[in-house]
Design brief:
The two termini are 14 Å apart. By secondary structure, the protein is an alpha/beta fold. Helix 1 packs across helix 2. It is built from 6 helices and 13 strands. The structure holds ribulose-5-phosphate (5RP). The site of ribulose-5-phosphate has 17 residues, from helix 2 and helix 4.
Length: 231
C-alpha cells in the first residue's frame, strides 16, 4: 500500500481523475457531491471539450452549479431512472465497501442516484479507509418530527446532534428542505442492521449509511503516485 499522501487534495485529485477516465462515450453518469467529485467533473469537462458525449445527474445544488460551469450536460432521474454509473465521494469506507456519507448533507439524493446506477464508483483518499465504521452518521429528517426522531435515535445508543449552519444561524437546511441530525455512535458493528433501524423511524428521510451497494461498488483510493482500485 502506498503511504498516506501528505496533501489530501493531491490524493483526491488522483482518485477523481481516475474515475473520470472510466467514463465511456454515451454514458449517463450520477454526479456525487463534495471536493473529490469536483475533480472528477473538472476532468470530465476536459474530456467533453475533446469530444466525449455524456449527461450527468447532479446530487446537489453545489454539483449542479459546478457542472454547469464545466459545461457538463445535465439530466434527471425522471428521464433516466436507470443510469450507467454513479461517481461519488465518501466519509468512511470499511473493508466490505460499506460507506458513511453525508458530511455535505447530500446523502439522500446521493443514495437515490447510487441506487439507480448499474455501477457505483467511490472516490476517496486513504484517510477515509477504516477497519470499522465509527463516525457520525448523518440522518436527514423532516423538521416536524425532530423531537420524536431524536428520542428514537437515543434509543439506538447514539448521541444525536442537530447540525447547525456556518454563516447561517440555526439548523442546516438540506437541498430537500429538511434538517440533519449527526448521530454519534461508538463502533458500528452491524451497519446493515443500523441502517435498517434508522430507516424505520417515522420522520427519517434517509441516513448516510450506504450498505446496500457493495456488489456494484468500486473504490478508488487516491495516492501521490498511483491509485488503489478495490476490488
Ligand atoms: C456529501 C458527501 C460527500 O461525498 C462526502 O462527504 C465526501 O466529501 P469529500 O470528497 O469532500 O471528502 O457524502 O454529502
Amino acid at each position: 500500500m502506498e503511504s498516506m499522501t501528505r496533501d489530501p487534495a493531491v490524493a483526491k485529485r488522483a482518485a477523481g481523475y481516475k474515475a473520470a477516465e472510466m467514463v465511456k462515450d454515451g454514458m449517463i453518469i450520477g454526479l456525487g457531491t463534495g471536493s473529490t467529485v469536483m475533480y472528477t467533473m473538472e476532468r470530465l469537462s476536459r474530456r467533453i471539450d475533446e469530444g466525449l458525449t455524456i449527461a450527468g445527474i447532479p446530487t446537489s445544488f453545489q454539483t449542479a452549479i459546478r457542472a454547469r460551469e464545466y459545461n457538463i450536460p445535465l439530466t434527471t432521474l425522471d428521464d433516466h431512472p436507470v443510469i450507467d454509473l454513479a461517481i461519488d465521494g465518501a466519509d468512511e469506507v470499511d473493508p466490505q465497501l460499506r460507506l458513511i456519507k453525508g458530511r455535505g448533507a447530500a446523502h439522500t439524493r446521493e443514495k437515490c442516484v447510487a441506487a439507480a446506477a448499474q455501477r457505483f464508483i467511490v472516490v476517496v483518499d486513504e484517510q477515509k479507509m477504516v477497519t470499522c465504521l465509527d463516525g457520525l452518521v448523518p440522518v436527514e429528517i423532516i423538521a416536524f418530527a425532530i423531537r420524536p426522531v431524536m428520542d428514537q435515535l437515543l434509543n439506538l445508543n447514539c448521541t444525536p446532534i442537530l447540525r447547525e449552519g456556518v454563516k447561517k444561524d440555526g439548523p442546516v437546511i438540506t437541498d430537500n428542505g429538511n434538517f440533519i441530525i449527526d448521530a454519534k455512535f461508538k463502533k458500528i458493528t452491524k451497519p446493515e442492521k443500523l441502517e435498517a433501524s434508522i430507516g424505520l423511524i417515522p420522520g427519517v428521510v434517509e441516513s448516510g449509511l450506504f450498505c446496500g451497494f457493495t456488489d456494484k461498488t468500486t473504490v478508488i483510493v487516491g495516492g501521490e503516485k498511483k491509485c488503489r482500485v478495490i476490488p
